[in-house]
Amino acid sequence: MFLPVRHWFNLLQDEIKSLGPMGPVIFVIAYVITTILLIPGSAMTIGAGTVFGLKLGLISVITGANLAALGAFLLARTFLREKVRHWAEENPKFAALDRAIGREGFKMVLLARLSPVFPFTLLNYLLGLTRINIVSYVAANLIGMLPGTLLYTYIGATARDALSSGDGGLDKYRLLLRMTGLAATIGVVFLVTRMARKAMAEVESERKEDEAIDG
User: Fold this and answer.
1) Of 164, 126, 137, which is closest to residue 70 (Cα–Cα)?
2) In whole angstroms, what is the distance from residue 172 CA to residue 165 CA?
3) CA atoms of 186 and 14, how far apart (whole Å)
4) Whole-angstrom distance between the N-terminal and C-terminal Cα of the chain?
5) Which residues constitute the domain of residue 65?
6) Among 31-35, 39-43, 125-129, the least confident range
7) Residue 160: what are its φ and ψ, rounded to 5°?
8) What DSSP state is assigned to residue 167?
9) In total, how many domains does the chain have?
10) Distance in angstroms (rounded) separating the CA atoms of residues 193 and 38
11) Average pLDDT over every residue of 202-212
């Protein structure tokens, strides 16, 4: 209400456009660096939708997030293994996830991505300690990140339409469609997340039953 947000947005858009094809490339590099440094990427994901639009923003975020997840995963298996092992010891829930991944690697990594049991940036490192192979890890990440990434990018794209819309009926109609799509996306992500949480809770319950039997 009180800040020239529309003006700032137009300046930012002009700056990004001046970079040409390098704009998304620079964004991906920045996303990878910040994620590996354990900086949450939700703001950047929304910003990608605002600056690049839904399609290019989604492609840029998916590329950056998956490259970052792979980079952190490999660091946890090599140079930072002892440090990440210390982080894992401070997260009691990780022990259950580690056991479950030992039985069903792809499925459990997918559920972990869909259900926010751990922060995204930390989970990238913790999964490097598990026995999952790289191919299954990459595939589970690619699928599991889609719902949340789509939601945040959609929010940014909706903001883009709101900031750039004029007084024309077509712009308002397009904005209405975007808002309707956003509401539908929120509903789908909510249902998927709820299902994933339920599945993760069942895994935790099975772990406790196994421990009771072993005891």
Assistant:
1) 137
2) 7
3) 30
4) 62
5) 5-214
6) 39-43
7) -60, -45
8) S
9) 1
10) 22
11) 62
